[in-house]
Amino acid sequence: MQFATRAIHAGQEADPAVGAVAPSLHLSSIYAYESPGVTRAGYEYIRDGNPTRSALETCLASLENAPDGCPALCFSSGMAAIDGVMRLLRPGERVLMARGVYGGTTKLAEEVLRPAGIEVTYADATDSARFAEAITPQTRLIWIETPSNPLLRLTDIAAVAEAGHRVGALVAVDSTFATPYFQNPLDLGADVVMHSTTKYLGGHSDLLGGALIVRDPALRGRLYKLQKTTGAVAAPFDCWLTLRGVRSLAARMRLHESNAFAVARFLEEHPRVAAIHYPGLPSHLQNELAMRQMRGFGGMVAFEMKEGAAAARKVLERTHLFILAASLGGVESIISYPTLMSHAPLTPQERQRRGISDGLIRLSVGLEDAQDLIADLDQALKN
Ligand SMILES: *Cc1c(COP(=O)(O)O)cnc(C)c1O
Question: pTM of the entire structure?
Answer without folding.
Answer: 0.98
